[in-house]
């Protein structure tokens, strides 16, 4: 794999992360991160959609009439999202119920359309596909980090396994932080991640 | 040949072809996945019935606890006992009710499960209520909703809320009263009240109405079922009735005092 292609894959993970650098897709990041399992499923769903939307649009890019290109993009993205939603309903019904409307709302996730418009229409299919995987993974990564802290501190469990109960933390007088279960806490956590991230990557700091 | 991708003809043909391809693709996916999705929905219903009966759904199977699923007519007589048809009726509880058919599940221990369907604040609410073999005492309840406010109306799905219904009764003597979610907290001695949800008054009212509307149609069946099992637990019931009578007398005295 050429290093340029590889960069398409790795840049969105940190330096050009869609959530914490471009601040896109925040709404769903707040909504589905109460527990790890839905967060991971949501991350994977977005990854599949960004990857294949990029791939399809990149393959079509020479034939798409530029006057209706946004409509074409929306149709492609919406089709993929409906497919993902149907598959989730068929095979991971409980998670699909937890995610409820947020799977459908991937259609309006700025990351997906942003990458199609900004990258896939100018680049070759393979590069676009990697870019899509990278951006989906970058989004999923933040979701998983946020969900890890929210589930651990809010419910005292990980993947539904009662960690704190098993190590006997409750007997020492600890109690779960209910605030962690509410969306504002996800926003604060994302803020903390951005803070740490920019402390390390000083080139991202605004002067 | 160079195609002008911005000509009107090209755009129209492009859109039509795109829409047809997408439509075919989505129809195929929907048809192909339907059996799996239906099975999931059916499983969820069975799990909720098992939970309403008070069993742990992780260890207890539907077929181990439920003896029979039947549809009753307005007179309380069984008209259909094909399980598939009963579950089909559950897809539209309200529609079946209006059409005069009432699904019910009979558990092996003599208790019954009745499906509930009603209106919450933002959308439909539904659930299952299990009654003991006396057709009066609540054995358990499961409530679900599609769009109630998290933290307020959506609290009806919590185990803490649903536990309050256990042991409550739906009949006062011979009269059907249902169970009311009382705003400001239920009277501890009142067997027909549970606490409403703070900030979820409309949803709580919805649950009260749902329980009344759904169970009232089953009255003929309850009466018949009670008549057949009444022989044994009669003594116990009589004592209970006496106790409630005593209570209501006490209340009357209290009220008069005020």
Briefly characterize the structure.
The complex is a heterodimer of chains A (207) and B (258). Chain A is built from ten helices and no strands.
What does this structure look like?
The complex is a heterodimer of chains A (207) and B (258). Chain A has 207 residues and is mainly α. Helix content of chain A is 66%, strand content 0%. Chain A contains ten helices and no strands. The longest helix of chain A has 31 residues, at 125-155. The model of chain A has no long low-confidence stretch (mean pLDDT 86). Chain B has 258 residues and is α+β, with helices and mostly antiparallel strands. Chain B has a domain at 62-223. Chain B is built from eight helices and ten strands. In chain B, the strands form three sheets. A six-stranded antiparallel β-sheet of chain B has the order 2-1-3-4-5-6. A two-stranded antiparallel sheet of chain B has the order 7-8. In chain B, a hairpin with a 4-residue loop joins strand 3 and strand 4. Chains A and B meet through helix 4 of A and helix 1 of B.
| Rounded radius of gyration of chain A (Å) | 18 Å
Largest interface: A-B, 19 and 21 residues
- Please identify the structural class of chain B as seen in this structure: alpha+beta
Proportion of β residues of chain A? under 5%
Biggest β-sheet strands, sense, barrel of chain B: 6 strands, antiparallel
Fraction of helical residues of chain A: 55-70%
Give the overall pLDDT of chain B as a whole number. Answer: 81
Task: Enumerate the spans of chain A where pLDDT stays under 50 for 5 or more consecutive residues.
Answer: none
**H and E order of chain A:** HHHHHHHHHH
The secondary structure category of chain A is mainly alpha
User: What kind of oligomer do you see?
Assistant: heterodimer
What overall geometry of chain A do the principal axes of the alpha carbons give?
A: globular
């Amino acid at each position: 794999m050429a290093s340029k292609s590889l960069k398409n894959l790795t840049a969105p993970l940190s330096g050009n992360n869609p959530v914490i650098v471009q601040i896109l897709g925040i709404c769903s990041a707040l909504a589905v991160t109460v527990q790890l399992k839905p967060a991971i499923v949501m991350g994977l769903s977005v990854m599949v959609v960004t990857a294949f939307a990029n791939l399809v649009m990149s393959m079509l890019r020479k034939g798409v009439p530029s006057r209706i290109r946004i409509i074409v993009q929306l149709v492609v993205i919406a089709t993929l999202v409906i497919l993902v939603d149907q598959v989730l309903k068929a095979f991971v019904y409980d998670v699909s119920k937890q995610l409820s409307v947020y799977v459908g709302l991937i259609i309006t996730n700025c990351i997906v359309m942003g990458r199609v418009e900004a990258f896939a229409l100018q680049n070759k299919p393979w590069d676009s596909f990697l870019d899509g995987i990278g951006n989906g993974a970058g989004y999923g990564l933040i979701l998983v980090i946020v969900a890890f802290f929210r589930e651990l501190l809010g419910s005292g469990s990980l993947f539904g396994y009662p960690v704190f109960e098993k190590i006997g933390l409750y007997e020492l007088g600890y109690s779960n932080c209910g605030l962690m279960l509410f969306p504002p806490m996800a926003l604060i956590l994302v803020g903390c991640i951005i803070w740490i991230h920019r402390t390390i990557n000083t080139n991202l700091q605004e002067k | 040949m160079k195609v002008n991708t911005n000509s009107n003809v090209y755009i129209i043909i492009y859109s039509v072809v795109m829409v047809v391809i997408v439509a075919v693709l989505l129809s195929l996916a929907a048809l192909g996945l339907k059996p799996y999705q239906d099975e999931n929905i059916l499983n969820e219903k069975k799990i909720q019935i098992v939970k309403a009966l008070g069993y742990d759904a992780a260890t207890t199977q539907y077929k181990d606890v439920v003896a029979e699923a039947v549809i009753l007519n307005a007179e309380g007589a069984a008209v259909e006992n094909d399980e598939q048809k009963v579950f089909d009726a559950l897809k539209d509880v309200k529609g079946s009710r209006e059409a005069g058919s009432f699904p019910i599940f009979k558990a092996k221990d003599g208790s019954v499960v009745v499906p509930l369907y009603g209106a919450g604040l933002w959308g439909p609410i539904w659930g299952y209520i299990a009654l003991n073999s006396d057709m009066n005492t609540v054995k358990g309840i499961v409530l679900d909703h599609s769009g109630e406010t998290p933290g307020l109306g959506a609290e009806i799905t919590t185990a803490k809320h649903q536990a309050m219904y256990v042991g409550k009764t739906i009949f006062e003597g011979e009269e059907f009263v249902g169970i009311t979610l009382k705003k400001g907290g239920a009277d501890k001695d009142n067997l027909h009240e549970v606490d409403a949800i703070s900030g979820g008054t409309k949803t709580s009212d919805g649950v009260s109405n749902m329980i009344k509307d759904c169970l009232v149609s089953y009255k003929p069946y309850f009466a018949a079922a009670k008549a057949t099992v009444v022989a044994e637990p009669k003594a116990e019931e009589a004592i209970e009735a006496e106790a409630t009578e005593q209570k209501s007398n006490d209340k009357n005295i209290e009220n008069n005092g005020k």
